[in-house]
Amino acid sequence: MAAAYRVDARRWSELFETLMDTIETRFVRPEPRRRVRDFVAGLLAPLPVKNCWTIAEHAGDAGPGGMQDLIGRASWDDALVRADVRDFVAARLGHPDGILVIDETGDLKKGTHTVGVQRQYSGTAGKIENCQLAVHLSYASPFGHTLVDVALYLPRSWTEDPARRLEAGVPDTVGFATKPQLARRLVASAVAGGLPCRWVAGDEAYGSDPNLATALRGLRIGYVLAVACSHRVPTGLGTYRTDQIATGLPRHAWQRISGGSGAKGQRYYDWAFITLPLAADQHAGHHWLLIRRNRTTGELAFYRCWSPERVALRQLVTVAGRRWSIEESFQATKTGLGLDQHQHRRWKAWHRWTTLVIAAHAFLAAAAAVSTASPDGLIDITVNELRRLFHALILDPARRNTDVIAWSIFRRRHQDSAKISHYARQALTEP
């Protein structure tokens, strides 16, 4: 078993070097070119908190300035790095039946100065909170799944406030865009970049936008997009709410099909689908309403579906089930890679941090895909387990006691300077 891990570790190392060699070409100067490799290695490390300080200490730097410069001031284009990551994913996880999954995630924040923050609904918190929201694009195939692209949602309270835009470094070319509009741009960029895909999946926030569905049909990409129970669809007998259609379905219309494998077994639901011939438009193709029923609670979920060619119910169910892969990616990147631990307020720094987290996650997904089959009694290696092994076997630096002591001195000196400043400020106003 250990021998198999050693063989895989060499393959993991080769993949890591391949990805980093590609990304490094986006940097002109040697300092950021070296640091980006150390930065991604720090994201992969089991640090209790991920920020420029802890990552710099892990890399053996004398202080955090170099990592802060990489994220905030160095000259490099995060969009080009994400394009490199997309090409890396296409080469290692690409499949003609690939699925693009769109969803947003929120990062809770205090204060009002972090770019994009305002009180808004966060699915992460399940309520209205002070937070940032970002739309992510994930790629799922039979080989694995990973995040590949991102767009920060900028509310009107930001786009229409020149002072806030200037303070956060928001480019003049960035205007207000809804989350479905951001999703359209991400999908179009992935398709133009050659990422092999046949389907798009998303929740109600995206299924409720008819312009997104129209754009996907124009790209000839099938979709399975969740819609609300109040969504109205045209049938041969008229236009009805989706919940009304579900109520009138006969018993034989339902089929029990697994929406995918889970940690505790297959995720079986009852499914039904109805052809919607009156929904046809200039893009031709085939429209369906897909309905999912929970076997225990009877709770219903609804999806608008389209494909350039006819497909079986099982195919639509597979796409609907793969939408949850992006939730797994969010969990992996937040708990293991520090996606939501950034301490940056400005537009450029936020995108750079997020881009390097996406690169780290794509590497883990690709490395998991090339791992040898596990022997009986072991599940196949997961992204989270691979991250632990990769750090222990490949990345863990030979730490010197002098490095540990030097960083202790650096932190205490910084804290002393801060303490002096606080006391001096207080002395100006207090007796």
From TrEMBL:
<dbReference type="InterPro" id="IPR039365">
    <property type="entry name" value="IS701-like"/>
</dbReference>
<protein>
    <submittedName>
        <fullName>SRSO17 transposase</fullName>
    </submittedName>
</protein>
<dbReference type="Pfam" id="PF13546">
    <property type="entry name" value="DDE_5"/>
</dbReference>
<feature type="domain" description="Transposase IS701-like DDE">
    <location>
        <begin position="29"/>
        <end position="233"/>
    </location>
</feature>
<dbReference type="InterPro" id="IPR038721">
    <property type="entry name" value="IS701-like_DDE_dom"/>
</dbReference>
<dbReference type="InterPro" id="IPR012337">
    <property type="entry name" value="RNaseH-like_sf"/>
</dbReference>
